[in-house]
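Each record in this resource describes a single protein on a pair of labelled lines. With that in mind, the following record should read easily:

===
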Amino acid sequence: MISQIQGKLISKEPTRVVVTAGGIGFELIVPLSTSRLLPGCNEDVSLLVVFTLDRAGVQLYGFATQKEKEVFELLTSVKGVGPKAALNLLSRWTPEEITAAINQGKTELLRSAPGIGPKKVEAILKRFHENVPTGAVSSAEQCKPGVLADALNALTALGLTRKEAQERLTKLKITPEMNLQDILKQALAQKG
């Protein structure tokens, strides 16, 4: 699996770039937010990558920040929300704005992107709240949504039920500086 590419930017369009690394040219689709942060052609660049394989073939999506990548993965994990719709959202708003809108139930922000209708908005809100405990979100609104979702998945993989994992995460005092390892240590230290 490819998770990051570092190399030379040899082609740049608003939502498509080509990066050479190790003698291979990788074409990546990027949101406008990432495209704006990239240097000019023939400059060194590093992009975080989401790799997908579907009927259309292999596709690489590139992101300038971890938060963009996490929000992309969260959105595309919702049934009916594809990469194109997620990229539309990330091209219009920052990951923090998208996360805040989801936390606050501001559906109009999500609905204003092409390809996101009322049913998909409901699915996004439901998915987000299933994967990110509401108590944990309110105590750490600045925390990356993907970290909490990863913590929930890790705890369930360790044998906790989803409900138990959510309860443990809800009891934590999560700060924006905490990473996945910190959250898991505190969650596992609780007595069930």
User: Anything to note?
Assistant: The radius of gyration is 18 Å.
